[in-house]
Design brief:
This protein is an alpha/beta fold and about 650 residues long. It contains 24 helices and 18 strands.
């Protein structure tokens, strides 16, 4: 493992600012996914502060809840009275709920983040700096039948090896008891079997160096013993595969109780693992570390050709797992898997939103690598289900269920938007993402596929007039997010304003191809997926020119009129599948790529108006912007219009000719 310490950067830190050093080395640890994933691990430093009365108080600055080591800042380390923590460590028993209450009582700032559940343990370790990670290599070794012996031989007397025990107060008590006679000066670290590794020192750099050194030793051992153990293979999802995914997603959402996302991982590593003869059995033995059960449940689902049968099998096993381990106070969580093996094809990840989906994907990718390493040196042997259940159904996690915030209106939903690079299309992407959706954004603009860094947006360079390009784009979207719930048919062009006498066949055909035929082809491509969607809806972005055409716009007006007629027929045909289909008729939307400042000035002058007057030249005397149309599209697809289909709604500020 690379030591990321930068002497030049470290020298810029204030020599007497221990918290600044704590932030720096914590960020170094957080930059290594093989050490910590998505909030995993924690760090602390002991220091002193002066209170309101001028008294010096010993404190523990410890990672706060909700912070990630990769980007934690000083405010992410709440100061807790050290003596308060040490006294808590002397108690014989303390429930987790009471412990968390006491941790907050020990805060110097009542508005600070809640301290880590390992705060008491950090306080009991008699060193200034304490680092804790869930290092893949160390935990992989511990997840084997001879793990304790291997680690003991590898580290010798410099590292204390302790059996697994539940995190929180009882773990702190275990470490305190095990180290009662220990000479801390001779220790570099503590390994908690199946959990992770602690390092510590009086100096921040030394504690960090110890972590990198000990983890590197485990990595070197794995490399020497396992070599290139990672299987690799190739598989390309077919159209039938994608349709099966959409069907699975709908059924999984029914188990979850809300719309969900599914990602099919067809990377070489994922396909390789899925191609192993015993992949399903390996993935159901348990996670890399019990903390992962909170994100990914205690075991995987196993899928073959019949995906729905695999989902039903997982549900049955999960209910049996709950029944075998639950007490009266437990509330059964949803029975949707979080990851699964699709035999010989891919790994599948499930979640209620894009953030959780990425967490599950990262955890699973690390887990399947660890499983293969462990199998290469011995055998993958995770904790018994009872121990995993205790973490998944930890009282602290159960309490979070009651505090869960309201879901965004489109959380877990997948939206397809054509013509997404600018104007109304781009505004639609932004509005739907802001409401929790994932968007498959289609456009032919140059370099469009590389424009977005948001995990909630999949930009696809796509020629909407090419049916094969459309099919490919939608399959990419389904592989990434699992299906389609909303389609916004927005792609369009405004051809040159020629009167019919001068209208060329080329311009006429081009307008029909982009403004009408492309929308039909995209709708046709999406319908099979929409039939498995959550509250599915389609919106056609038509035009004021449909009810009120003008001279010189025959090619555009006729295409948009055809588009509206297509909408009406689609509304009739798709209603039996619960798919709502409506149209918007925007007018005079000037913040699009079609309108330059020069053109606006010319048109305004033609009518003897200022640019601002021209923009608001409607009955309401208000400017119509792209985001106004996008908001209307979003509302049409929301619960607010769940009883509306086949409607045509103007977004034009009021047009006298239309009215």
């Amino acid at each position: 493992m690379k030591n990321r310490w930068d002497h030049a950067q470290a020298s810029e830190l204030q020599a007497d600012d221990t918290l600044e050093m704590r932030v720096y080395t914590s960020n170094l640890l957080g930059q290594e996914p093989d050490l910590v994933l998505h909030g995993g691990g924690n760090t602390s430093v002991k220091g002193q502060v002066k209170d309101l009365f001028g008294e010096i108080i010993d404190v523990l600055y410890v990672k706060g809840s909700g912070w990630d080591l990769s980007n934690i800042a000083s405010e992410g380390f709440p100061a807790v009275r050290l003596q308060h923590l040490l006294k808590l460590g002397q108690l014989e028993t303390l429930s987790d709920t009471d412990m968390m209450r006491q941790l907050r009582l020990g805060l110097l700032d009542p508005g600070a983040p809640t301290p880590s559940v390992e705060a008491i343990l950090h306080a009991l370790i008699p060193h200034k700096f304490v680092d804790h990670s869930h290092a893949d290599a160390v935990v992989t070794l511990s997840n084997s039948p001879d793990g304790e012996a291997i680690l003991s031989e590898l580290y010798g007397e410099e590292v204390l090896i302790l059996p697994y025990i539940m995190p929180g107060f009882i773990l702190a008590k275990q470490v305190a008891e095990a180290t009662r006679e220990v000479d801390w000066a001779k220790l570099k670290g503590i390994v908690l079997m199946h959990h992770g590794i602690f390092t510590f020192a009086e100096d921040g750099k030394q504690s960090y160096d110890n972590m990198i050194e000990l983890v590197s030793m485990a990595e070197s051992f794995l490399q020497a013993q396992a070599g290139e153990s990672q299987a690799r293979a190739e598989y390309t999802l077919t159209a039938d595969d994608c349709l099966s995914l959409a069907e699975l997603r709908k059924a999984a959402g029914d188990l979850f109780g809300n719309p969900v996302l599914i990602r099919a991982d067809t990377s070489a590593e994922a396909c390789g693992f899925a191609s192993l003869d015993n992949a399903g059995e390996l993935a159901t033995r348990g996670p890399l570390t019990p903390d992962h059960t909170i994100h990914a449940k205690a075991f995987a689902a196993v899928f073959s050709d019949d995906l729905l049968a695999g989902l039903a099998s997982f549900e049955q096993r999960y209910r049996a797992y709950f029944a075998a381990n639950a007490s009266a106070e437990h509330q059964c969580l949803d029975c949707m898997p979080r990851y699964g093996v699709w035999a010989s094809k891919a790994m599948l990840y499930f979640a209620g939103n894009i953030k959780r989906l990425n967490v599950v994907a990262d955890i699973t990718q690390h887990t399947i690598a660890a499983i293969q390493n462990a199998e290469a040196i011995s055998q993958w042997q995770a904790l018994p289900e009872r121990d995993l259940f205790e973490v998944e159904y930890w009282e602290l996690e159960q309490a979070k269920l009651k505090l869960a915030g309201k879901r965004a209106a489109f959380e877990g939903k997948v939206v397809v938007v054509s013509g997404a690079a600018s104007g109304i299309g781009r505004a639609c992407v932004e509005e739907f993402v802001a409401q929790g959706a994932c968007v498959v954004a289609l456009d032919i603009a140059e370099n469009f596929a590389t424009r977005s860094n948001s995990p909630a947006i999949l930009p696809v360079h796509c020629d909407v007039t090419d049916p094969e390009s459309l099919q490919h784009a939608i399959q990419l979207g389904v592989a990434r997010y699992g299906g389609v719930d909303v389609l916004v048919n927005n792609a369009g062009i405004f051809p040159s304003p020629d009167k019919i006498e001068q209208l060329s066949d080329e311009i006429w055909q081009r307008s029909l191809a982009v403004n009408l035929s492309a929308a039909m082809a995209l709708t046709r491509t999406c319908i099979p997926y929409l039939k498995h969607g959550f509250d599915p809806a389609v919106v056609f972005i038509a035009s004021k020119n449909v009810p009120a055409p003008g001279p010189g716009a025959a090619a555009y007006s006729v295409a948009k009129a055809g588009l509206t007629q297509l909408m009406r027929v689609a509304a009739l045909e798709l209603a039996e599948s619960g798919i709502r289909v409506n149209a918007l008729h925007p007018n005079a939307v000037y913040d699009t790529a079609l309108w330059t400042e020069e053109l606006l000035a010319q048109r305004a002058a033609h009518y003897g108006l200022s640019v601002e007057q021209y923009k608001a030249n409607n009955l309401l005397r208000t400017e119509v912007r792209s985001k106004d149309v996008a908001r209307a599209a979003l509302r049409l697809c929301s619960e607010d219009f769940s009883r509306t289909t086949g409607a045509q709604i103007p977004v034009d500020g009021g047009n006298e000719r239309v009215i």
